[in-house]
């Protein structure tokens, strides 16, 4: 009886947690799908889960019956049964049928999610984004719009967005759980796939999805997060326009920021660009583009977006992202210099 | 039958390689081992095909610039003939003719050594043309595949010589007959692998 | 051989084990070494769960965490699970087919020492500048990028121990093909023997691709080649293919013997022959075969294209069918039986629902389009732990409890055994069930920490508490082993009373020649048939005669040790001037001792009829 009580407690706890956290967070969970790809995948998950729960039920019924009915009671020797052709055929054929039921939509979905014909068509209006992954940050280039941004992907809702994925150092994997995924960024070749962001459910998620790196890539693999801003087509177009308007580095607004800009131009601009129309090839873009840094929601993908955390980051990146490529690439900054830099960077906004 | 028994031409069994339990085990085990070796070489072939002509810059020689038929043809002939001579050796072993068996194995070893010599000569040539183990993925894959085979030939050569020297004064018995037999299996195997290297690497390489 | 019964000094015992070629002693070596590595891997698992118990934890650093997960996976798969199963195969399989030894006793010992030195080499990395840190899969781009010598330890250590495994596999295959007792046809072999057979065949064909992959990686890292250096024409996807062509069959190499162990236990403690024996054999072979056709399902997100993904998805689902057949056959073995819930039976019984969970998530993962969501998340972590722990580790615990009396001649304590079971079982489900959801909620695998505010906190804490229960279970098992060994109450031939197969027809532990006279096998469950006809033991198939046995040898140890030395040279190649000489010395030791083995005749020795008769008398007196 004691065992049973223990069991109850544990299963109660387990169920409680499930209820409490439900299906996870709307901006992060694959169980809260927010787009066509994630929907397709969620449907497949549900179908396979239903079939499998059915299988489990049958097994559990036999299992429980065996437990109660066939315990050893006396020393009699049971009949030695060789098998049963009828039964064996049943439990061969039924699983085959069940798997066929699952296999057909699987194959259909696999081809659907891999369909990127629109990318290669001439004069296609489809939005294409080149994703370049680095240790441990993400670079996003919009080749048709001729702009580059980093760390925060901006996309229009309710239309297919196409991605070219490649890594420039070690293999990473591009994953936006709530919207669908994922695809590896290989070092050898460009992978292609598409996603669609649903406007209504993007709103539910606060307009900002969490993106992750899903392939072990070194010490800071866990911290290689990015964010996705899903905007309506109009807002997206205006974002593109205001990005394109930044033809040369933005002027600092305050004295402190001007001081910061000078420090930046001396120590940072060698790697970080502050204009979006980056003419350099992807391999030459050494560090995240900071054109709209002030609009972003995180520092270095993981820290809160405020001056204090920004200063902490510049003071000692190694502490927050071990193994990153920024540490020791610039001179040590005094507190005043950090204040100035933070003021300048936080002022880099393209949207008012 | 016992491995240590002294046998004569009359009492020599038809299948000396399988007439004791130990010999039978060796025979079965070695066949299985060759199965594993087949997978090993298949993996190397697959790697080679994937990396063929993959070089960092266009100045480096490709397969069609490198390979020459005459030399590889000679090497192929040497190795194929050595396979044939090892068949003769085994034939003599089954006939309980120790001296002739040793002779044929000796010829086999000589041909094997000649093959290795031609391979070393060939590799030196390639290195001079800029096709090195470290220069490109193509180079790495080529030398690894062909070199693995060459390594197998070298090992076989050592094996053959060890067997011949060790048993030079003992004549045939059921303890050493399976050893000779298994060696000949090995030798045939590396010959077969070479046939694939000749067709996949050299012939297909020259076609482009 | 009455000398064998005498007590020996410690030194003599050690020397005996260093030179033994007896499969039963090699089995004990495998169990000991594998058990030790299991504890190391378990400790690493505990560190992982401590680090992940709360968000933003700094119990270990990011770099150290990657080393720990890499070593946890590598150790558990290569150095714990497989060797322990090899231990059971060595201890039991020759007995089950009625053989006096394995086909290649010398190679058997060599296989063990290669595994052992490979494992020691790999673990020395902890003390020599850091362990490998690119995951147990060691994907090429990261592995080439990795600084220090960690990956080199991985490459060389696995190469050496992999050789040992390959040798072991061939040895088992030949033993089963050539050395079955009279009457022991293939379709009368116990299922554990069958699964040993199929798993060994998988080893034979799956390890060479790994060997090649490791060679390429070794050349790239130590000798300047360019297989995976993209800038020089290399291609990293080749590694993924080679690794998974090995890696997927590896899962079946582990789980098939586990199925075999459970089949023995179900049938024994239900007092019923295995339901659908022939379809069980068929399913085993089919799983082994299909195991080679599905490797790319580990690479669905690599970008192989929809055609490849669809084909591999369907092929993977197909494996569900033979696995399902097995589950139902086990259930119906118990159905109508007289089931006694001994400690081994606890594990076997609990294995069914646990493994089913792993099986069904396996089918879910096979659905390629949906796998894009599961891939490389905690869902996958949960899935393979359900398969490997719920299947393989359960079977190891079950097998230890079940065969302990046969191997050591004394029974493990049943109550403690059941306590281990409950602790481990509860801990296992607590740790891993919740991880399915973590993955679906968006938590990638192999993360050294996670930020708060993503909904991961509670679930991770639950998971970590589960790990505590599992550890307690293992500790109770260790106590059990000590208590049992101290008491050392001797048991008879068939201590469970329900033994069905040949190993239960001979003394526990068996004499070093196993069978005085080879038994005559008259059907499946050979010993059970005789018992049911009222006989005490097997009918001999031959008159009492001399028995031919192999000589002990120290050479296997030396051969393996030579490679161990050479590996240090390769590790420091290009860094120290002594590297090349060390490689040469190591290889000389290895090839030199192979040469000695080759030119020195070894005919073994004979136990004479008279000595066997002496043993007989003693048996009567005792």
Structural account:
- The complex is a heterotrimer of chains A (352), B (208) and C (622).
- In chain A, the strands form three sheets. Chain A has a five-stranded mixed β-sheet. A five-stranded mixed β-sheet of chain A has the order 4-10-9-6-7. A two-stranded antiparallel sheet of chain A has the order 11-12.
- In chain A, helix 7 (255-267) crosses helix 10 (335-346).
- Chain A has helices at residues 2-21, 36-69, 85-113, 117-120, 199-204, 233-245, 255-267, 307-315, 317-320, 335-346; strands at residues 127-134, 137-142, 147-150, 152-156, 160-167, 172-176, 180-185, 191-196, 208-213, 226-231, 298-299, 303-304.
- Chain A is of the alpha+beta class and 352 residues long.
- Chain A contains ten helices and twelve strands.
- The N and C termini of chain B lie far apart (56 Å).
- The longest helix of chain B has 31 residues, at 21-51.
- In chain B, 74% of the residues lie in helices and 0% in strands.
- The model of chain B has no long low-confidence stretch (mean pLDDT 92).
- Chain B has one domain (16-52, 61-207): Cytochrome c oxidase, subunit III, four-helix bundle (Four Helix Bundle (Hemerythrin (Met), subunit A)).
- Chain B contains six helices and no strands.
- In chain B, 41% of the residues are buried.
- Chain B has helices at 21-51, 63-66, 69-94, 98-128, 137-166, 177-207.
- In chain B, helix 1 runs antiparallel to helix 5, helix 3 packs antiparallel against helix 4 and helix 3 runs antiparallel to helix 6 (177-207).
- Chain C has a two-stranded antiparallel sheet.
- Helix content of chain C is 67%, strand content 1%.
- Chain C has helices at residues 10-19, 23-52, 62-96, 105-124, 140-145, 150-178, 191-222, 237-270, 277-290, 306-334, 343-366, 368-374, 378-408, 414-440, 457-487, 526-532, 555-571, 579-599, 609-621, and strands at 547-549, 605-607.
- The radius of gyration of chain C is 24 Å and the shape is globular.
- Chain C has one domain (20-487): Cytochrome c oxidase-like, subunit I domain (Cytochrome C Oxidase, Chain A), CATH 1.20.210.10.
- At the A-C interface, helix 1, helix 2, helix 3, strand 7 and strand 9 of A face helix 3, helix 5, helix 9, helix 10 and helix 11 of C.
């Amino acid at each position: 009886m004691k065992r049973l009580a223990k069991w109850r407690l544990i299963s109660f706890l387990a169920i409680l947690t499930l209820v409490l956290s439900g299906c996870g967070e709307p901006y992060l969970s694959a169980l809260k799908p927010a787009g066509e790809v994630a929907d397709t995948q969620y449907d497949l998950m549900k179908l396979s889960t239903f079939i499998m729960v059915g299988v489990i039920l049958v097994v559990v019924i036999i299992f429980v019956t065996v437990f109660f009915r066939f315990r050893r009671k006396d020393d009699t020797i049971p009949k030695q049964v060789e098998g049963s052709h009828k039964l064996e055929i049943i439990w061969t054929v039924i699983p085959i049928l069940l798997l066929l039921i699952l296999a057909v939509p699987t194959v259909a979905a696999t081809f659907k999610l891999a369909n990127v014909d629109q990318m290669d068509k001439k004069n296609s209006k489809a939005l294409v984004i080149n994703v370049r992954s680095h240790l441990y940050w993400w670079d996003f280039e919009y080749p048709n719009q001729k702009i580059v941004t980093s760390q925060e992907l901006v996309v229009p809702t309710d239309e297919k967005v196409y991605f070219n994925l490649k890594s420039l150092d070690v293999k990473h994997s591009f994953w936006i759980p709530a919207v669908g995924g994922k695809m590896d960024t290989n070092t050898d070749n460009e992978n292609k796939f598409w996603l669609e962001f649903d406007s209504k459910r993007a709103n539910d998620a606060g307009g900002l999805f969490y993106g992750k790196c899903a392939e072990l890539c070194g010490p800071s693999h866990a911290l290689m997060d990015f964010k996705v801003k899903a905007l309506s087509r109009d807002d997206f177009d205006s974002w593109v326009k205001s990005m394109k308007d930044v033809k040369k580095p933005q002027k600092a607004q305050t004295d402190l920021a001007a001081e910061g800009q000078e420090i930046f131009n001396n120590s940072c601009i060698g790697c970080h660009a502050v204009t979006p129309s980056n003419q350099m090839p992807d391999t030459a873009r050494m560090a995240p583009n900071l054109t709209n840094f002030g609009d972003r929601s995180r520092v270095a993908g993981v820290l809160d977006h405020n001056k204090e955390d920004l200063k902490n980051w510049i003071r000692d990146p190694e502490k927050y992202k071990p193994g990153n490529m920024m540490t020791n690439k610039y001179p040590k900054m005094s507190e005043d210099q950090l204040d100035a830099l933070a003021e300048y960077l936080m002022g880099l906004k393209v949207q008012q | 039958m016992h491995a240590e028994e002294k046998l004569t031409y009359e009492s020599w069994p038809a299948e000396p390689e399988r007439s004791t339990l130990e010999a039978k085990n060796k025979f079965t085990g070695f066949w299985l081992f060759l199965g594993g070796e087949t997978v090993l070489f298949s993996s190397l072939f697959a790697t080679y095909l994937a990396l063929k002509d993959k070089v960092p810059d266009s100045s480096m020689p490709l397969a069609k610039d490198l390979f020459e038929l005459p030399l590889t043809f000679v090497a192929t002939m040497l190795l194929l003939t050595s396979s044939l001579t090892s068949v003769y050796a085994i034939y003599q072993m089954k006939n309980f003719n120790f001296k002739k068996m040793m002779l044929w194995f000796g010829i086999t070893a000589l041909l094997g050594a000649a093959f290795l010599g031609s391979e070393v000569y060939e590799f030196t040539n390639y290195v001079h043309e800029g096709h090195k183990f470290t220069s490109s993925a193509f180079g790495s894959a080529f030398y690894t595949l062909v070199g693995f085979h060459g390594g197998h030939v070298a090992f076989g050569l050592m094996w053959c010589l060890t067997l011949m020297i060790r048993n030079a004064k003992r004549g045939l018995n059921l303890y050493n007959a399976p050893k000779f037999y298994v060696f000949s299996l090995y030798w045939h195997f590396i010959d077969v692998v070479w046939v694939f290297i000749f067709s996949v690497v050299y012939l297909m390489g020259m076609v482009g | 051989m009455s000398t064998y019964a005498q007590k020996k000094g410690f030194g003599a015992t050690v020397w005996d084990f260093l030179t033994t070629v007896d499969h039963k002693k090699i089995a004990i070596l495998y169990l000991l070494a594998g058990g030790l590595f299991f504890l190391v891997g378990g400790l690493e698992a505990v560190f992982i769960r401590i680090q992940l118990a709360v968000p933003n934890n700094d119990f270990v650093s990011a770099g150290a965490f990657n080393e720990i997960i890499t070593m946890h996976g590598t150790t558990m798969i290569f150095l714990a699970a497989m060797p322990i199963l090899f231990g059971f195969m060595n201890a039991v399989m020759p007995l089950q087919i009625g053989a006096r030894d394995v086909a290649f006793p010398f190679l058997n010992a060599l296989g063990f020492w290669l595994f052992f030195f490979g494992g020691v080499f790999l673990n020395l990395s902890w003390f020599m500048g850091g362990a490998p840190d690119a995951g147990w899969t060691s994907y090429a781009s990261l592995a080439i990028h990795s600084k220090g010598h960690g990956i080199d330890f991985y490459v060389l250590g696995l190469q050496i121990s992999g050789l040992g495994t390959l040798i072991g596999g061939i040895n088992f295959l030949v033993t089963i093909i050539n050395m079955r007792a009279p009457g022991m046809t293939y379709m009368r072999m116990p299922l554990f023997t069958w699964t040993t057979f199929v798993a060994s065949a998988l080893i034979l064909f799956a390890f060479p691709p790994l060997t090649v992959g490791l060679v390429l990686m070794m050349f790239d890292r130590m000798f300047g080649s360019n297989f995976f250096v993209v800038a020089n024409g290399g291609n990293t996807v080749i590694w993924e293919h080679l690794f998974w062509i090995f890696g997927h069959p590896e899962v079946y190499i582990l789980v098939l013997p586990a199925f075999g162990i459970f089949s023995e236990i179900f049938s024994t403690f239900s007092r019923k022959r295995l339901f659908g024996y022939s379809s069980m054999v068929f399913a085993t072979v089919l799983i082994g075969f299909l195991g080679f056709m599905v490797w790319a399902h580990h690479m669905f997100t690599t970008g192989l294209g929809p055609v490849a993904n669809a084909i591999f998805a369907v092929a993977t689902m197909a494996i569900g069918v033979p696995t399902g057949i097995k589950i139902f056959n086990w259930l119906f073995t118990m159905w109508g039986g007289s089931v006694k819930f001994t400690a081994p039976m606890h594990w076997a019984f609990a294995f069914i629902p646990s493994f089913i969970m792993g099986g069904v998530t396996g089918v879910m993962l096979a659905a390629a389009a949906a796998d894009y969501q599961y891939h490389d998340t905690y869902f996958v972590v949960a899935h393979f732990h359900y398969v490997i722990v719920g299947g393989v580790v359960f079977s190891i615990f079950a097998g230890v409890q079940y065969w302990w009396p046969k191997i050591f001649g004394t029974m493990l304590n049943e109550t403690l055994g059941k306590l281990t079971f409950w602790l481990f079982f509860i801990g296992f489900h607590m740790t891993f069930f919740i991880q399915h959801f973590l993955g679906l909620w968006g938590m990638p695998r192999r993360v050294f920490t996670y930020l708060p505010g993503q909904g991961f906190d509670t679930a991770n804490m639950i998971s970590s508490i589960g790990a505590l229960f599992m550890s307690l279970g293992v500790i109770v098992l260790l106590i059990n082993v000590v208590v049992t060994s101290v008491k050392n109450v001797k048991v008879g031939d068939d201590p469970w009373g329900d033994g069905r197969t040949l190993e239960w027809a001979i003394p526990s532990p068996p004499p070093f020649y196993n069978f005085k006279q080879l038994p005559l096998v008259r059907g499946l469950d050979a010993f059970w048939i005789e018992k049911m006809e009222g006989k005490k033991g097997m009918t001999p198939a031959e008159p009492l005669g001399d028995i031919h046995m192999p000589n002990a040898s120290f050479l296997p140890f030396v051969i393996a040790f030579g490679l161990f030395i050479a590996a240090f040279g390769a590790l420091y190649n290009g860094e120290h001037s002594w590297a090349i000489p060390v490689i040469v010395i190591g290889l000389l030791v290895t090839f030199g001792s192979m040469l000695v083995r080759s030119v020195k005749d070894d005919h073994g020795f004979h136990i004479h009829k008279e000595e066997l008769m002496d043993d007989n008398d003693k048996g009567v007196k005792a």
